[in-house]
Request: fold
Amino acid sequence: MRILVVEDDNRVAEALSGALRRNGYEVQRAASAAQALSAPPVDLVLLDLGLPDRDGIEVCRELRARGGVPVIAVTARGGEPDRVRGLRSGADDYVVKPFGTAELLARIEAVLRRSMGQRAHEDRLLTLDGLEIDLARRTVAVDGKPVPLTRKEYDVLAVLVRAGGAAVARDRILVEVWQSTYDGMSRTLDVHVATLRGKLGRTGCLVRTVRGFGYRIAVADAAASDTAPPPAAAGC
Reply:
């Protein structure tokens, strides 16, 4: 997923960009309205409303008018009138500085999830070497046979699928699925992944461990291989 960070403060922009990259996102940077409006297409825009060359509200309206890209306003303007004005300009969400990284990542995922929900059904159906995941119906099947996942198991898998093959940090998964980054939840995540792999059987190793970071769904690996992945194992 590609995110455009529109922020004229270099310190803030670098910290924000670094956090996003560590959580599996591709990041582009713009320091002005002109740069933001001339940037290549992205999946989401984080837009500072206090830009040096133009009102961020106007930029938000123009971005949405061009192609409906999701926009999250990130700003120090925290008053209710500012929030209302930002949302009415077309922003999908409004985050007030200072904010926590976990909260921002959860909001990004929520906005991207809503954006994906507006796409055609075929964009919400993923098939990988016999594993079929329907994000619209919240169903999973292997070789045409339904796989009975718990809600949390499905939610973990959906977070990885929506990342499109990019590595997803453990903290991000915990926030999305359990709304928590408590250290004790990390073991719970590992147990759910192990159970998920077992239920997926021969396709279980499509859920790959990124050692010291988190997990990813092996989209590119499956597409490049004509053979079935190895049986699910602890070393996936």
